[in-house]
Protein backbone atom coordinates (compact mmCIF):
# COMPACT_ATOMS: atom_id res chain seq x y z
CA UNK A 1 0.00 0.00 0.00
CA UNK A 2 1.32 3.43 -0.91
CA UNK A 3 0.79 6.05 1.73
CA UNK A 4 -0.03 9.52 0.49
CA UNK A 5 1.58 12.17 2.63
CA UNK A 6 2.15 15.87 2.27
CA UNK A 7 0.68 19.23 3.17
CA UNK A 8 -3.14 19.39 3.52
CA UNK A 9 -3.48 21.45 0.34
CA UNK A 10 -1.60 18.85 -1.67
CA UNK A 11 -3.74 16.03 -0.20
CA UNK A 12 -6.92 17.91 -1.08
CA UNK A 13 -5.68 18.46 -4.60
CA UNK A 14 -4.80 14.76 -4.89
CA UNK A 15 -8.27 13.58 -3.83
CA UNK A 16 -9.98 16.19 -5.97
CA UNK A 17 -8.02 14.91 -8.97
CA UNK A 18 -8.95 11.32 -8.19
CA UNK A 19 -12.65 12.24 -7.91
CA UNK A 20 -12.47 14.21 -11.15
CA UNK A 21 -10.83 11.32 -13.00
CA UNK A 22 -13.35 8.83 -11.58
CA UNK A 23 -16.24 11.09 -12.58
CA UNK A 24 -14.82 11.46 -16.10
CA UNK A 25 -14.29 7.70 -16.40
CA UNK A 26 -17.86 6.93 -15.32
CA UNK A 27 -19.31 9.61 -17.63
CA UNK A 28 -17.23 8.39 -20.58
CA UNK A 29 -18.28 4.79 -19.97
CA UNK A 30 -21.99 5.63 -19.62
CA UNK A 31 -22.09 7.98 -22.60
CA UNK A 32 -20.12 5.49 -24.73
CA UNK A 33 -22.67 2.80 -23.89
CA UNK A 34 -25.55 5.11 -24.83
CA UNK A 35 -23.91 6.08 -28.13
CA UNK A 36 -23.23 2.46 -29.09
CA UNK A 37 -26.48 0.82 -27.96
CA UNK A 38 -29.30 3.37 -28.16
CA UNK A 39 -31.18 2.86 -31.44
CA UNK A 40 -32.91 6.23 -31.33
CA UNK A 41 -30.40 9.04 -31.88
CA UNK A 42 -32.61 11.46 -29.94
CA UNK A 43 -32.67 9.11 -26.98
CA UNK A 44 -28.89 8.74 -27.14
CA UNK A 45 -28.45 12.52 -27.28
CA UNK A 46 -30.73 13.07 -24.30
CA UNK A 47 -28.95 10.46 -22.21
CA UNK A 48 -25.47 11.72 -23.10
CA UNK A 49 -26.53 15.27 -22.24
CA UNK A 50 -27.96 14.12 -18.92
CA UNK A 51 -24.84 12.11 -18.11
CA UNK A 52 -22.58 15.13 -18.55
CA UNK A 53 -24.99 17.71 -17.16
CA UNK A 54 -25.43 15.77 -13.91
CA UNK A 55 -22.02 14.39 -12.89
CA UNK A 56 -22.30 10.99 -11.19
CA UNK A 57 -26.10 11.30 -10.85
CA UNK A 58 -26.54 11.21 -14.64
CA UNK A 59 -24.69 7.89 -15.05
CA UNK A 60 -26.64 6.44 -12.10
CA UNK A 61 -29.94 7.43 -13.73
CA UNK A 62 -28.77 5.95 -17.02
CA UNK A 63 -27.85 2.73 -15.25
CA UNK A 64 -31.33 2.49 -13.72
CA UNK A 65 -33.51 3.59 -16.61
CA UNK A 66 -31.40 3.46 -19.74
CA UNK A 67 -29.83 0.00 -19.92
CA UNK A 68 -31.69 -3.06 -21.17
CA UNK A 69 -30.55 -5.89 -18.90
CA UNK A 70 -33.13 -8.32 -20.20
CA UNK A 71 -31.91 -9.07 -23.71
CA UNK A 72 -28.65 -10.75 -22.80
CA UNK A 73 -30.19 -13.02 -20.13
CA UNK A 74 -33.07 -13.97 -22.41
CA UNK A 75 -30.70 -14.83 -25.23
CA UNK A 76 -28.52 -16.98 -22.99
CA UNK A 77 -31.52 -18.77 -21.53
CA UNK A 78 -33.12 -19.50 -24.87
CA UNK A 79 -29.94 -20.43 -26.74
CA UNK A 80 -29.69 -23.92 -25.30
CA UNK A 81 -33.20 -25.21 -25.85
CA UNK A 82 -35.26 -26.15 -28.87
CA UNK A 83 -38.03 -23.96 -30.21
CA UNK A 84 -41.20 -24.23 -28.18
CA UNK A 85 -44.13 -25.08 -30.41
CA UNK A 86 -47.10 -27.40 -30.78
CA UNK A 87 -48.05 -29.79 -33.52
CA UNK A 88 -51.07 -28.34 -35.33
CA UNK A 89 -52.65 -30.63 -37.90
CA UNK A 90 -53.46 -27.72 -40.23
CA UNK A 91 -51.14 -26.36 -42.86
CA UNK A 92 -49.98 -22.77 -42.37
CA UNK A 93 -51.72 -20.24 -44.58
CA UNK A 94 -49.57 -18.67 -47.28
CA UNK A 95 -50.06 -14.88 -47.65
CA UNK A 96 -51.10 -15.17 -51.31
CA UNK A 97 -54.10 -17.34 -50.39
CA UNK A 98 -55.54 -15.08 -47.65
CA UNK A 99 -58.13 -13.32 -49.81
CA UNK A 100 -59.47 -16.62 -51.13
CA UNK A 101 -59.90 -17.95 -47.58
CA UNK A 102 -61.93 -14.94 -46.39
CA UNK A 103 -65.63 -14.59 -47.13
CA UNK A 104 -64.93 -11.11 -48.46
CA UNK A 105 -62.60 -8.23 -47.80
CA UNK A 106 -61.97 -4.64 -48.74
CA UNK A 107 -61.01 -4.83 -52.45
CA UNK A 108 -58.01 -2.54 -52.05
CA UNK A 109 -56.64 -3.89 -48.79
CA UNK A 110 -53.35 -5.67 -49.40
CA UNK A 111 -53.71 -8.42 -46.82
CA UNK A 112 -50.96 -10.35 -48.54
CA UNK A 113 -48.54 -7.47 -47.85
CA UNK A 114 -49.54 -7.34 -44.18
CA UNK A 115 -49.17 -11.10 -43.74
CA UNK A 116 -45.87 -11.25 -45.62
CA UNK A 117 -44.41 -8.44 -43.52
CA UNK A 118 -45.58 -9.90 -40.22
CA UNK A 119 -44.31 -13.36 -41.20
CA UNK A 120 -40.84 -11.85 -41.52
CA UNK A 121 -41.27 -9.82 -38.33
CA UNK A 122 -42.35 -12.75 -36.17
CA UNK A 123 -40.81 -15.75 -37.97
CA UNK A 124 -44.08 -17.48 -37.10
CA UNK A 125 -46.69 -19.08 -39.37
CA UNK A 126 -50.15 -17.68 -39.99
CA UNK A 127 -52.56 -20.42 -38.93
CA UNK A 128 -56.05 -21.09 -40.32
CA UNK A 129 -58.92 -22.83 -38.56
CA UNK A 130 -59.40 -20.64 -35.51
CA UNK A 131 -62.47 -19.49 -33.60
CA UNK A 132 -62.21 -16.24 -31.61
CA UNK A 133 -65.01 -14.91 -29.41
CA UNK A 134 -65.39 -11.46 -27.84
CA UNK A 135 -65.86 -11.34 -24.08
CA UNK A 136 -67.04 -7.96 -22.84
CA UNK A 137 -65.79 -6.87 -19.44
CA UNK A 138 -65.25 -9.20 -16.53
CA UNK A 139 -68.97 -9.93 -16.57
CA UNK A 140 -68.43 -12.19 -19.60
CA UNK A 141 -64.72 -12.95 -19.42
CA UNK A 142 -64.40 -14.17 -15.83
CA UNK A 143 -67.29 -16.69 -15.90
CA UNK A 144 -65.92 -18.10 -19.17
CA UNK A 145 -62.41 -18.40 -17.76
CA UNK A 146 -63.60 -19.92 -14.50
CA UNK A 147 -65.76 -22.41 -16.38
CA UNK A 148 -62.75 -23.48 -18.41
CA UNK A 149 -60.74 -23.96 -15.21
CA UNK A 150 -63.56 -26.02 -13.70
CA UNK A 151 -63.64 -28.27 -16.77
CA UNK A 152 -59.86 -28.59 -17.13
CA UNK A 153 -58.55 -32.14 -17.37
CA UNK A 154 -54.77 -31.98 -17.81
CA UNK A 155 -53.06 -28.56 -17.65
CA UNK A 156 -53.64 -24.86 -16.96
CA UNK A 157 -51.22 -22.03 -17.61
CA UNK A 158 -52.08 -18.52 -16.44
CA UNK A 159 -50.02 -15.35 -16.93
CA UNK A 160 -51.29 -12.00 -15.71
CA UNK A 161 -49.85 -8.58 -15.00
CA UNK A 162 -52.27 -7.73 -12.15
CA UNK A 163 -53.89 -10.57 -10.19
CA UNK A 164 -55.57 -8.99 -7.19
CA UNK A 165 -56.50 -10.77 -4.01
CA UNK A 166 -60.07 -9.48 -4.08
CA UNK A 167 -63.34 -11.45 -4.41
CA UNK A 168 -62.73 -12.42 -8.05
CA UNK A 169 -59.02 -13.09 -7.52
CA UNK A 170 -59.84 -15.31 -4.55
CA UNK A 171 -62.38 -17.16 -6.71
CA UNK A 172 -59.76 -17.84 -9.37
CA UNK A 173 -57.32 -19.11 -6.74
CA UNK A 174 -60.03 -21.37 -5.27
CA UNK A 175 -60.93 -22.88 -8.65
CA UNK A 176 -57.26 -23.39 -9.50
CA UNK A 177 -56.80 -25.22 -6.20
CA UNK A 178 -59.82 -27.43 -6.95
CA UNK A 179 -58.43 -28.22 -10.39
CA UNK A 180 -55.09 -29.14 -8.88
CA UNK A 181 -56.85 -31.54 -6.50
CA UNK A 182 -58.36 -33.26 -9.54
CA UNK A 183 -54.84 -33.84 -10.86
CA UNK A 184 -54.58 -30.88 -13.24
CA UNK A 185 -51.01 -29.62 -13.68
CA UNK A 186 -50.95 -25.84 -13.08
CA UNK A 187 -48.46 -23.02 -13.63
CA UNK A 188 -49.20 -19.39 -12.70
CA UNK A 189 -46.90 -16.50 -13.65
CA UNK A 190 -47.34 -13.02 -12.18
CA UNK A 191 -45.32 -9.89 -12.78
CA UNK A 192 -43.38 -8.85 -9.68
CA UNK A 193 -44.75 -5.30 -9.85
CA UNK A 194 -48.29 -6.37 -10.73
CA UNK A 195 -48.37 -8.68 -7.71
CA UNK A 196 -48.11 -5.64 -5.44
CA UNK A 197 -51.32 -3.96 -6.63
CA UNK A 198 -53.26 -5.58 -3.78
CA UNK A 199 -52.29 -6.28 -0.19
CA UNK A 200 -51.84 -8.95 0.89
CA UNK A 201 -50.70 -10.08 -2.57
CA UNK A 202 -52.31 -12.99 -4.39
CA UNK A 203 -49.01 -14.87 -4.09
CA UNK A 204 -49.70 -15.45 -0.38
CA UNK A 205 -52.98 -17.17 -1.24
CA UNK A 206 -51.32 -19.23 -3.97
CA UNK A 207 -48.68 -20.35 -1.48
CA UNK A 208 -51.35 -21.31 1.05
CA UNK A 209 -53.10 -23.38 -1.59
CA UNK A 210 -49.77 -24.84 -2.83
CA UNK A 211 -50.45 -23.70 -6.40
CA UNK A 212 -47.20 -23.63 -8.41
CA UNK A 213 -46.44 -20.02 -9.32
CA UNK A 214 -43.52 -17.77 -10.18
CA UNK A 215 -42.88 -14.04 -10.20
CA UNK A 216 -41.54 -12.59 -13.41
CA UNK A 217 -38.10 -11.12 -12.52
CA UNK A 218 -37.98 -12.95 -9.18
CA UNK A 219 -34.67 -14.49 -10.24
CA UNK A 220 -33.26 -10.98 -10.71
CA UNK A 221 -33.83 -9.62 -7.20
CA UNK A 222 -30.37 -8.07 -6.93
CA UNK A 223 -30.87 -5.92 -10.02
CA UNK A 224 -34.67 -5.57 -9.90
CA UNK A 225 -34.34 -1.94 -8.71
CA UNK A 226 -32.43 -1.32 -11.96
CA UNK A 227 -35.29 -2.65 -14.15
CA UNK A 228 -38.07 -0.37 -12.99
CA UNK A 229 -39.47 0.05 -16.50
CA UNK A 230 -39.70 -3.61 -17.50
CA UNK A 231 -42.84 -5.65 -16.82
CA UNK A 232 -44.52 -8.78 -18.10
CA UNK A 233 -47.76 -7.16 -19.24
CA UNK A 234 -49.09 -10.26 -21.05
CA UNK A 235 -52.50 -11.74 -20.23
CA UNK A 236 -52.63 -15.39 -21.25
CA UNK A 237 -54.55 -18.39 -19.99
CA UNK A 238 -54.50 -21.78 -21.72
CA UNK A 239 -56.53 -24.77 -20.54
CA UNK A 240 -55.59 -28.32 -21.61
CA UNK A 241 -53.45 -26.75 -24.33
CA UNK A 242 -56.61 -26.26 -26.41
CA UNK A 243 -58.63 -23.32 -25.07
CA UNK A 244 -56.93 -19.95 -24.85
CA UNK A 245 -57.81 -16.59 -23.36
CA UNK A 246 -56.01 -13.34 -24.06
CA UNK A 247 -56.67 -9.63 -24.37
CA UNK A 248 -56.24 -6.62 -22.13
CA UNK A 249 -57.99 -7.72 -18.96
CA UNK A 250 -56.32 -8.18 -15.59
CA UNK A 251 -57.93 -10.30 -12.87
CA UNK A 252 -59.57 -7.59 -10.78
CA UNK A 253 -62.98 -6.97 -9.25
CA UNK A 254 -63.11 -3.57 -10.99
CA UNK A 255 -63.72 -5.28 -14.35
CA UNK A 256 -67.08 -6.64 -13.18
CA UNK A 257 -69.28 -3.71 -14.12
CA UNK A 258 -72.52 -5.40 -13.09
CA UNK A 259 -71.19 -5.62 -9.53
CA UNK A 260 -70.86 -1.81 -9.55
CA UNK A 261 -67.27 -1.61 -8.24
CA UNK A 262 -65.96 1.63 -6.79
CA UNK A 263 -63.62 2.20 -9.77
CA UNK A 264 -65.18 0.36 -12.73
CA UNK A 265 -63.06 -0.51 -15.76
CA UNK A 266 -64.32 -1.42 -19.23
CA UNK A 267 -62.29 -3.96 -21.19
CA UNK A 268 -62.33 -6.70 -23.82
CA UNK A 269 -60.98 -10.21 -23.56
CA UNK A 270 -61.08 -13.07 -26.06
CA UNK A 271 -61.61 -16.83 -25.99
CA UNK A 272 -59.62 -18.67 -28.66
CA UNK A 273 -59.86 -22.21 -30.00
CA UNK A 274 -57.82 -23.76 -32.77
CA UNK A 275 -54.16 -23.92 -33.85
CA UNK A 276 -53.32 -20.36 -32.75
CA UNK A 277 -53.70 -21.45 -29.11
CA UNK A 278 -50.25 -23.01 -29.59
CA UNK A 279 -48.83 -19.50 -29.95
CA UNK A 280 -50.35 -18.49 -26.61
CA UNK A 281 -48.93 -21.57 -24.93
CA UNK A 282 -45.50 -21.07 -26.52
CA UNK A 283 -45.39 -17.46 -25.24
CA UNK A 284 -46.25 -18.63 -21.73
CA UNK A 285 -43.74 -21.49 -21.87
CA UNK A 286 -40.91 -19.14 -22.86
CA UNK A 287 -41.82 -16.72 -20.06
CA UNK A 288 -42.02 -19.61 -17.58
CA UNK A 289 -38.59 -20.85 -18.65
CA UNK A 290 -37.24 -17.32 -18.37
CA UNK A 291 -38.61 -16.93 -14.84
CA UNK A 292 -37.86 -20.42 -13.51
CA UNK A 293 -35.42 -22.12 -15.95
CA UNK A 294 -38.02 -24.92 -16.16
CA UNK A 295 -39.21 -26.09 -19.56
CA UNK A 296 -42.78 -27.11 -20.35
CA UNK A 297 -43.04 -29.74 -23.06
CA UNK A 298 -45.01 -32.78 -24.09
CA UNK A 299 -48.54 -33.66 -25.17
CA UNK A 300 -50.17 -32.37 -21.98
CA UNK A 301 -48.94 -28.82 -22.59
CA UNK A 302 -48.81 -28.94 -26.39
CA UNK A 303 -51.49 -31.29 -27.75
CA UNK A 304 -52.32 -31.64 -31.43
CA UNK A 305 -54.61 -28.78 -32.42
CA UNK A 306 -57.20 -29.11 -35.15
CA UNK A 307 -59.37 -26.64 -37.01
CA UNK A 308 -62.12 -25.02 -34.93
CA UNK A 309 -63.26 -22.17 -37.18
CA UNK A 310 -62.51 -19.96 -40.20
CA UNK A 311 -60.30 -17.24 -38.72
CA UNK A 312 -56.67 -16.87 -39.80
CA UNK A 313 -54.59 -15.83 -36.79
CA UNK A 314 -51.05 -15.50 -35.50
CA UNK A 315 -49.63 -14.69 -32.08
CA UNK A 316 -47.13 -11.83 -31.82
CA UNK A 317 -44.74 -11.59 -28.87
CA UNK A 318 -43.15 -8.23 -28.19
CA UNK A 319 -40.63 -7.18 -25.57
CA UNK A 320 -37.29 -5.51 -24.80
CA UNK A 321 -35.35 -8.64 -25.76
CA UNK A 322 -35.10 -10.22 -29.22
CA UNK A 323 -38.78 -9.37 -29.80
CA UNK A 324 -38.10 -5.62 -29.72
CA UNK A 325 -40.23 -3.49 -32.09
CA UNK A 326 -42.31 -6.35 -33.50
CA UNK A 327 -45.57 -4.62 -32.62
CA UNK A 328 -44.37 -1.25 -33.89
CA UNK A 329 -43.61 -2.82 -37.27
CA UNK A 330 -46.91 -4.72 -37.22
CA UNK A 331 -48.88 -1.53 -36.60
CA UNK A 332 -47.01 0.35 -39.33
CA UNK A 333 -47.51 -2.49 -41.83
CA UNK A 334 -51.26 -2.57 -41.21
CA UNK A 335 -51.60 1.22 -41.43
CA UNK A 336 -49.69 1.28 -44.71
CA UNK A 337 -52.05 -1.34 -46.17
CA UNK A 338 -55.30 0.34 -45.03
CA UNK A 339 -57.52 1.71 -47.79
CA UNK A 340 -60.84 2.69 -46.18
CA UNK A 341 -60.91 2.69 -42.38
CA UNK A 342 -58.82 2.27 -39.24
CA UNK A 343 -60.36 2.00 -35.78
CA UNK A 344 -58.16 2.22 -32.68
CA UNK A 345 -59.14 1.94 -29.02
CA UNK A 346 -56.41 2.31 -26.41
CA UNK A 347 -56.27 3.66 -22.85
CA UNK A 348 -52.83 5.22 -23.34
CA UNK A 349 -51.89 6.97 -26.58
CA UNK A 350 -48.28 8.15 -26.81
CA UNK A 351 -47.04 6.61 -30.07
CA UNK A 352 -43.57 7.15 -31.42
CA UNK A 353 -42.79 9.33 -34.44
CA UNK A 354 -42.88 6.54 -37.03
CA UNK A 355 -46.37 5.45 -35.95
CA UNK A 356 -47.60 9.06 -35.98
CA UNK A 357 -46.24 9.36 -39.52
CA UNK A 358 -48.05 6.17 -40.60
CA UNK A 359 -51.34 7.37 -39.06
CA UNK A 360 -51.04 10.72 -40.82
CA UNK A 361 -50.10 9.13 -44.14
CA UNK A 362 -53.19 6.91 -43.94
CA UNK A 363 -55.46 9.86 -43.14
CA UNK A 364 -53.98 12.02 -45.92
CA UNK A 365 -54.59 9.36 -48.58
CA UNK A 366 -58.26 9.22 -47.61
CA UNK A 367 -58.43 6.49 -44.97
CA UNK A 368 -60.91 7.29 -42.20
CA UNK A 369 -58.80 7.01 -39.02
CA UNK A 370 -60.73 6.90 -35.72
CA UNK A 371 -58.90 6.91 -32.37
CA UNK A 372 -60.90 6.45 -29.15
CA UNK A 373 -59.31 7.46 -25.85
CA UNK A 374 -60.81 7.63 -22.34
CA UNK A 375 -61.92 11.08 -21.25
CA UNK A 376 -61.04 10.32 -17.64
CA UNK A 377 -57.90 8.25 -17.36
CA UNK A 378 -56.95 6.12 -14.37
CA UNK A 379 -53.57 7.86 -14.67
CA UNK A 380 -54.28 11.59 -15.19
CA UNK A 381 -50.74 12.37 -16.31
CA UNK A 382 -51.22 10.00 -19.26
CA UNK A 383 -54.00 12.26 -20.54
CA UNK A 384 -51.75 15.28 -20.02
CA UNK A 385 -48.91 13.75 -22.01
CA UNK A 386 -51.26 12.56 -24.73
CA UNK A 387 -52.85 16.00 -25.06
CA UNK A 388 -49.42 17.43 -25.82
CA UNK A 389 -49.06 15.37 -29.01
CA UNK A 390 -52.64 14.93 -30.27
CA UNK A 391 -52.36 17.97 -32.53
CA UNK A 392 -49.88 16.01 -34.65
CA UNK A 393 -52.58 13.53 -35.74
CA UNK A 394 -55.69 15.73 -35.50
CA UNK A 395 -54.14 18.36 -37.76
CA UNK A 396 -53.66 15.80 -40.53
CA UNK A 397 -57.21 14.47 -40.46
CA UNK A 398 -57.25 11.69 -37.87
CA UNK A 399 -60.44 11.78 -35.79
CA UNK A 400 -59.80 11.54 -32.05
CA UNK A 401 -62.66 10.95 -29.61
CA UNK A 402 -62.89 10.94 -25.82
CA UNK A 403 -65.11 8.24 -24.34
CA UNK A 404 -66.97 8.92 -21.09
CA UNK A 405 -66.49 6.93 -17.86
CA UNK A 406 -66.15 4.23 -16.80
CA UNK A 407 -62.47 4.12 -17.72
CA UNK A 408 -61.95 2.15 -20.94
CA UNK A 409 -58.96 -0.20 -20.81
CA UNK A 410 -59.75 -1.79 -24.21
CA UNK A 411 -56.86 -2.37 -26.65
CA UNK A 412 -58.10 -3.09 -30.19
CA UNK A 413 -57.20 -2.10 -33.75
CA UNK A 414 -59.38 -2.84 -36.81
CA UNK A 415 -58.38 -2.19 -40.44
CA UNK A 416 -60.83 -2.13 -43.38
CA UNK A 417 -63.29 -4.49 -41.67
CA UNK A 418 -61.06 -7.48 -42.46
CA UNK A 419 -57.99 -7.35 -40.18
CA UNK A 420 -57.79 -6.91 -36.41
CA UNK A 421 -55.11 -6.71 -33.73
CA UNK A 422 -56.08 -7.76 -30.22
CA UNK A 423 -54.05 -8.27 -27.07
CA UNK A 424 -52.27 -6.60 -24.18
CA UNK A 425 -50.27 -3.76 -25.74
CA UNK A 426 -51.09 -0.07 -25.36
CA UNK A 427 -50.02 2.60 -27.85
CA UNK A 428 -47.21 4.04 -25.74
CA UNK A 429 -43.47 3.64 -25.29
CA UNK A 430 -43.81 1.50 -22.17
CA UNK A 431 -45.84 -1.15 -24.00
CA UNK A 432 -44.13 -0.95 -27.37
CA UNK A 433 -40.55 -0.68 -26.09
CA UNK A 434 -40.24 -1.69 -22.45
CA UNK A 435 -42.89 -4.25 -21.53
CA UNK A 436 -43.34 -7.88 -22.55
CA UNK A 437 -46.60 -7.97 -24.53
CA UNK A 438 -48.67 -10.52 -26.42
CA UNK A 439 -51.06 -9.72 -29.27
CA UNK A 440 -52.88 -11.70 -31.94
CA UNK A 441 -53.40 -10.57 -35.51
CA UNK A 442 -56.65 -11.84 -37.05
CA UNK A 443 -57.80 -12.03 -40.67
CA UNK A 444 -61.58 -12.30 -40.57
CA UNK A 445 -64.37 -10.10 -41.82
CA UNK A 446 -66.85 -11.38 -39.24
CA UNK A 447 -64.53 -10.75 -36.29
CA UNK A 448 -63.36 -7.38 -37.62
CA UNK A 449 -66.93 -6.20 -38.21
CA UNK A 450 -67.99 -7.35 -34.74
CA UNK A 451 -65.11 -5.39 -33.23
CA UNK A 452 -65.83 -2.33 -35.33
CA UNK A 453 -69.50 -2.40 -34.33
CA UNK A 454 -68.48 -2.71 -30.69
CA UNK A 455 -66.21 0.32 -31.09
CA UNK A 456 -68.90 2.30 -32.93
CA UNK A 457 -71.30 1.66 -30.06
CA UNK A 458 -68.94 3.70 -27.90
CA UNK A 459 -69.34 6.76 -30.14
CA UNK A 460 -72.82 7.55 -28.82
CA UNK A 461 -71.61 9.66 -25.93
CA UNK A 462 -68.14 10.55 -27.17
CA UNK A 463 -66.74 14.00 -27.86
CA UNK A 464 -64.45 14.64 -30.82
CA UNK A 465 -61.29 16.59 -30.05
CA UNK A 466 -60.66 19.48 -32.44
CA UNK A 467 -57.47 21.31 -33.33
CA UNK A 468 -59.10 24.52 -32.06
CA UNK A 469 -59.62 22.93 -28.65
CA UNK A 470 -56.02 21.76 -28.48
CA UNK A 471 -54.70 25.16 -29.58
CA UNK A 472 -57.00 26.94 -27.13
CA UNK A 473 -55.60 25.35 -23.98
CA UNK A 474 -54.19 27.91 -21.53
CA UNK A 475 -50.42 28.29 -21.64
CA UNK A 476 -49.86 26.77 -18.15
CA UNK A 477 -51.84 23.68 -19.23
CA UNK A 478 -49.84 23.40 -22.45
CA UNK A 479 -46.59 23.61 -20.48
CA UNK A 480 -47.81 21.00 -17.98
CA UNK A 481 -48.82 18.66 -20.78
CA UNK A 482 -45.61 19.22 -22.72
CA UNK A 483 -43.37 18.64 -19.72
CA UNK A 484 -45.27 15.46 -18.88
CA UNK A 485 -44.83 14.22 -22.44
CA UNK A 486 -41.05 14.50 -22.05
CA UNK A 487 -41.34 11.74 -19.44
CA UNK A 488 -43.42 9.49 -21.73
CA UNK A 489 -40.88 6.60 -21.79
CA UNK A 490 -41.29 6.31 -18.01
CA UNK A 491 -45.10 6.73 -17.85
Layout of helices and strands, plus pairs?
Elements: H1 8-37, H2 41-53, H3 57-66, H4 70-78, H5 98-101, H6 111-122, E1 127-136, H7 137-151, E2 155-160, H8 167-181, E3 185-191, H9 202-208, E4 213-216, E5 236-239, E6 243-247, E7 265-266, E8 268-273, H10 277-292, E9 311-318, H11 326-337, E10 341-345, H12 353-364, E11 368-374, H13 380-387, H14 391-394, E12 399-403, E13 407-408, E14 412-415, E15 419-423, H15 429-434, E16 437-443, H16 445-456, E17 463-465, H17 467-471, H18 475-486
Parallel strand pairs: 2-3, 3-4, 7-13, 10-11, 11-12
Antiparallel strand pairs: 1-8, 1-9, 2-5, 5-6, 6-8, 9-16, 10-14, 12-17, 14-15, 15-16
Helix pairs in contact: 1-2, 1-3, 2-3, 6-11, 7-8, 11-12, 13-18
How would you characterize this protein structure?
There is one protein chain. The relative contact order is 0.13. The radius of gyration is 24 Å and the shape is globular. The protein folds into three domains: about 10-65; about 70-100 and about 125-310, Endonuclease Chain A (Endonuclease, Chain A, 2-Layer Sandwich); about 325-490, Endonuclease Chain A (Endonuclease, Chain A, 2-Layer Sandwich). Helix content is about 40%, strand content about 20%. A hairpin with a 3-residue loop joins strand 14 (about 410-415) and strand 15. The termini are far apart. The chain has 18 helices and 17 strands.
